[in-house]
Design goal:
The complex is a heterotrimer of chains A (222), B (107) and C (550).
Chain A (H helix, E strand, L loop, with lengths): L8 H4 L9 H36 L1 H8 L4 H25 L3 H31 L15 H37 L8 H26 L7
Helix pairs in contact in A: 2-6, 2-7, 3-6, 4-5, 4-7, 5-6, 6-7
Chain B lengths: L3 H21 L5 H22 L7 H27 L22
Helix pairs in contact in B: 1-2
Chain C lengths: L28 H5 L4 H29 L10 H36 L8 H23 L13 H5 L4 H28 L12 H33 L12 H35 L6 H14 L15 H29 L8 H24 L1 H7 L3 H31 L5 H27 L14 H31 L50
Helix pairs in contact in C: 2-3, 2-4, 2-15, 3-4, 3-6, 3-7, 3-8, 3-13, 4-6, 6-7, 7-8, 7-9, 8-10, 8-11, 8-13, 9-10, 10-11, 11-13, 11-14, 13-14, 14-15
The chains are: A mainly alpha (222), B mainly alpha (107), C mainly alpha (550).
Chain lengths: 222, 107, 550
């Protein structure tokens, strides 16, 4: 990345025709994305309820199953994602003064997200090999089999849904980075950057809860 | 330093992560869950306050954020009241009777 | 270039050219399918839900034909299961839920707040495409092979024992749900951020309040349904056991999750219709709404408390009795704001100058039939009574009184009321009234006997019944035929009015409200310049109703 990035001031301030002003548009966009995040939280809701049910009903089995998750990789992933939130937040700060630095920080965010997905893929591979994927192939010590299968069902559903959201976030961030780098700020203006950042932080928030829910049950033993 | 805020929050998040990882290995029964959940809430609060700028956002935004969490709470609480107060009379498991297939008469 | 489109007849030679409006500015199919105009999107929705309504109606027709005789002689029991499932799925998700919000709400909300469009017009168009795609997908699954679980997909039948197209229908409904979420999000942001200067919250028409509250329910509840359907699908595929007691799961977990959405869903269906009625009654009584503030609090109260009562669908399913008590009490409480609204509509009518126009007939029908539906809901909310009434025709009658006697009649009333605004044409008033009366009579003849049948113990979702129930069933089916005629009539005369109806001015009903301050049909941007609002809604004077309705 050699030359600086030029921002198209016109594109920064474009106001869609249904709005009366840039302020109104910005208010609407911000509020809109928060409502969207609320719907996303409700979307995860039933999985959380299923988890609460399973945790209460199968406390020992959930503990045994949780001990089969890879805590090292899970903790690493948490660190990656938390860091990516910091870089994304820094990118929105940078955006106001230097688009070039913002591009670097956005790229870092995307790379950290990709790192997370790669680690997750490694975990899934390991769990598949250990016959922990629910369904016909599932195998676990007999006493805890039912509860463990339910745990892993929720584990794959929750982390899978999360990974899907993260994948979308990474794609959008890369797209954003590319456009910002080229100075095509129609798709990469400050307002959209804030929206992207909110989405990214939401994905991080969900993981902040998934980590203890899935990796830290009865780690010290039953 | 321009990114001072982000760096401080990041340090805080890493510290909390280390705490939750460490505390998980203690054998303290239900307190494990309490501690890990509390730390998660603390991390979430940091992210929402300093990265998502929730305190500086409009009232409508804060209400939206609160409402979603509150609705989940309602779902958990009232469903939970069913599970907490249900009387379970255990009966031997009977597989459902397999009926013979319906003759393909009139459709 | 003009291609297939709902075109108007070209003006007669020498006749004055119509001014440009949202409808006639471009007749090409492409302009319709790529429009960002909320008014055109509303019409796109109107056509789509009309198609689905009639398909759902066909299923109902076959059901009522089968039930004319006690023996199961028209269709087999499996086919019957597929029919009532199709009827429920189509009518709930593909007709009722989108009806008033996506048709009337889309058309009117921006106009009622003085805006040029919704906050996110492209999201609006996307919601229609998602709706149509999901709807067609669901329809194919229902028709090609069918599903026999009921629209409620109860586990463990749906997850373990049904061998029909369950996963396909789940997927279809999942897709359609996202259309609702998009619409709800759009409405909330629009009402918060795009009101005209001077239009404070408590100067908003009740139609706006009603759709706003509905949108809150849409965005909070629908995602829960979406994930619940995914869980059912995954359980079918993997047999993990979340809903299977043999593996430690709980079938009631499904029911908690399903009804957490589906009870608020009925408020999604009824709140907008209350909003429509609140617009029609003041206009045709020439009186402002009685107790406007309480009406808004009641709307919000229904939305909030409606989220707390879902367990009343589960009283006999194995739910804890103590939870049942809580749900029963809350269900009684939710009747209070509804009752407040009924009282206030009645008080609005009192000493009003009433005209029995077609919209008013529908609105009055709503008030009466919704009251009956609501009162019978109280029967069902009582634990002891529900033990006997649950899964009988009493429940069927109860919810049809609300959904059909209530929501559908309000939709019809709204379509008639705003028809001049939407199309620039008046419908023939006599036929409007005839259809309204036919629908009212047909509806009551269809569903009132079902209260009696349910009380006497006839169970729902069976294609056979003991012979002593036949008389009432025949009455019900006869009523259904009248109801069907009542629904077909507007299709004819409303369609006719598009070509031959008298042209309407901006405000043929002399109604208040910003939408009546524009030409009929409105121009693309709704207003020449953004209106400034200086007073509250419903500024009606008790003028004599001469000349308002011919």
């Amino acid at each position: 990345m050699s030359a600086g990035v030029r921002i198209d001031a016109q594109a920064e301030m474009q106001v869609a025709e249904q709005f009366d002003s840039a302020v109104q548009q910005h208010q609407a966009a911000t509020f809109g994305v928060w409502i969207f995040l609320a719907t996303e939280l409700m979307f995860f809701g039933p999985l959380f309820l299923g988890y609460v049910y399973g945790r209460m009903h199968f406390s020992e089995a959930f503990g045994a199953a949780s001990r089969h998750t890879d805590i090292a990789l899970g903790t690493l992933n948490t660190a990656l994602l938390l860091t990516s939130s910091a870089t994304m937040a820094a990118a929105t700060v940078a955006r106001k003064v230097s688009a070039r630095v913002a591009v670097w920080l956005l790229l870092a965010t995307a790379l950290l997200g990709i790192g997370f997905l790669v680690v997750k893929g490694m975990e899934y591979h390991k769990e598949w090999d250990e016959a922990l994927f629910p369904g016909a192939r599932f195998s676990f010590e007999a006493a805890y089999a039912d509860g463990a299968q339910m745990f892993f069902f929720l584990y794959f559903a929750l982390t899978g849904l999360h990974a899907l959201h993260l994948f979308i976030g990474v794609t959008l961030t890369l797209f954003f980075t590319f456009n910002l780098r080229r100075g095509r700020t129609l798709f990469a203006n400050e307002e959209k950057h804030e929206i992207l950042a909110l989405y990214w932080h939401f994905v991080d928030l969900v993981w902040i809860f998934l980590y203890p829910m899935l990796y830290l049950i009865q780690r010290g033993g039953g | 330093m321009r990114y001072k805020r982000e760096m401080i929050v990041w340090t805080g998040l890493m510290a909390l992560l280390a705490m939750t990882f460490g505390a998980a290995w203690l054998r303290i029964g239900t307190w494990n869950t309490v501690i890990s959940f509390t730390i998660a809430v603390a991390k979430a609060a940091l992210v929402m306050a300093f990265f998502m700028h929730l305190p500086e956002s409009s009232r409508s935004v804060r209400i939206a954020a609160f409402t979603a969490v509150f609705m989940l709470g309602i779902l958990f609480a009232i469903s939970g009241s069913d599970y907490a107060t249900r009387r379970v009379d255990v009966a031997p498991w009977q597989p459902p009777r397999q009926l013979s297939p319906i003759p393909p008469a009139r459709r | 270039m003009t291609t297939a489109s709902p075109a108007e007849a070209p003006p007669a030679a020498g006749a004055p050219r119509e001014p440009e409006n949202y409808f006639n500015r471009d007749f090409s199919l492409k302009s319709w399918l790529t429009t960002h105009d909320h008014k055109r999107i509303a019409l796109l929705y109107m056509v789509a839900i009309l198609v689905f309504f009639f398909i759902g109606g066909v299923a109902a027709t076959i059901i009522r034909l089968e039930l004319v005789t006690p023996a199961g002689d028209l269709v087999s029991d499996d086919t019957y299961d597929k029919l009532f499932t199709a009827h429920g799925v189509i009518m709930v998700w593909m007709f009722l839920i989108p009806s008033i919000p996506s048709v009337l709400g889309n058309f009117l909300m921006p106009m009622m707040i003085g805006a040029r469009d919704l906050a996110f017009p492209r999201l609006n168009l996307a919601s229609w495409y998602v709706f149509v795609a999901g709807g067609i997908f669901t329809l194919l699954a229902l028709v090609l092979g069918g599903v026999d679980t009921g629209w409620t997909f109860y586990t463990p039948f749906s997850t373990m024992f049904s061998n029909t197209n369950v996963i396909l229908v789940l997927l279809g409904v999942f897709i359609v749900g996202f259309s609702s979420i998009m619409t709800g999000l759009n409405f909330i942001v629009t009402v918060h951020t795009m009101r005209a200067p001077g239009l404070t919250w408590f100067r908003l028409p009740l139609f706006v309040w009603a759709n706003y509250a509905t949108s809150i329910i849409l965005v909070l509840a629908t995602p829960v349904l979406a994930m619940t359907l995914v869980l059912v699908g995954l359980e079918r595929l993997l047999q993990v056991g979340i809903f299977d007691p043999a593996l430690g799961g709980d079938p009631l977990l499904f029911q908690h999750l399903f009804w957490f959405y589906s009870h608020p869903a009925v408020y999604i269906m009824v709140l907008p219709s209350m909003g429509v009625v609140s617009e029609i009654i003041p206009c045709f009584a020439r009186k402002r709404v009685f107790g406007y503030r309480f009406m808004t609090y009641a709307i919000l109260g229904i939305a909030v408390v409606g989220f707390l009562v879902w367990g009343h669908h589960m009283f006999v399913s194995g739910q804890s009795v103590y939870a049942g008590l809580v749900f029963s009490l809350l269900s009684f409480l939710v009747a209070i704001p509804s009752a407040i609204k009924v009282f206030n509509w009645t008080a609005t009518l009192y000493k009003g100058s009433i005209t029995f126009s077609a919209p008013m007939l529908y609105a009055l029908g709503f008030v009466g039939l919704f009251t009956i539906g609501g009162l019978t809901g109280l029967f069902l909310a009582s634990l002891a009574l529900d033990v006997h009434l649950t899964d009988t025709y009493f429940v069927v009658a109860h919810f049809h009184y609300i959904m059909v006697g209530g929501a559908v009649m309000a939709y019809m009333g709204g379509i008639h009321f705003w028809w001049p605004k939407i199309t620039g044409r008046m419908y023939p008033e006599i036929w409007g009234r005839v259809a309204a009366v036919l629908i009212f009579v047909g509806f009551n003849l269809t569903f009132f006997p079902q209260f009696l049948l349910g009380y006497e113990g006839m169970p729902r979702r069976y294609h056979t019944y003991p012979p002593q129930f036949q008389t009432l069933n025949i009455l019900s089916s006869a009523g259904a035929s009248i109801l069907a005629l009542g629904y077909l009539l507007p299709l004819c005369y409303l369609g006719w009015s598009l070509f031959r109806g008298e042209r309407a001015g901006p405000n043929p009903w002399h109604a208040t409200g910003l939408e009546w301050q524009t030409p009929s049909p409105p121009p693309k941007d709704n207003f020449e310049e953004t209106p400034v609002v200086t007073e509250g809604p419903y500024g009606y004077t008790p003028e004599i109703a001469i000349g308002i309705v011919r």
